[in-house]
Amino acid sequence: MTDNERAGKSLFIYTLSKGLLTALVLTGVLLLVLAAAYLIGDMADNLARALVTASSGFSVFLSSLLGGRKLRSRGLFLGVALAVLYALVLYLTGFLAFGFPGFSKGVLPTAALLALGGALGGIIGVNIRGRR
Fold this sequence. Notes:
Elements: H1 3-40, H2 45-71, H3 75-98, H4 107-127
Helix pairs in contact: 1-2, 1-3, 2-3, 2-4, 3-4
């Protein structure tokens, strides 16, 4: 393995880790805002569930976009990997908090939304021209 390949892999892992942390923090902030709006306003439960899923999708999209912009290549792979890791963290968090969450009908659409948002964000991020 050459030094360039090693540096590329290190940058990818660093960008993936940073993107995952960014997505989780952004989701936390969005969920706090959503919880406040739910408590203050009169929001339907179905709307709240949809907004929770949308906030997760937006967080993965934005993190993949920023990561793809930094990497300048492999945006699709970065976005999908970020979405898979994000979904895994959410699933494990639910498992630790509530016991075995099972595999409900909402898992696949959420995972598909996350993968789509991550892939789209990574592709757009690679193709955005930044100041260099």
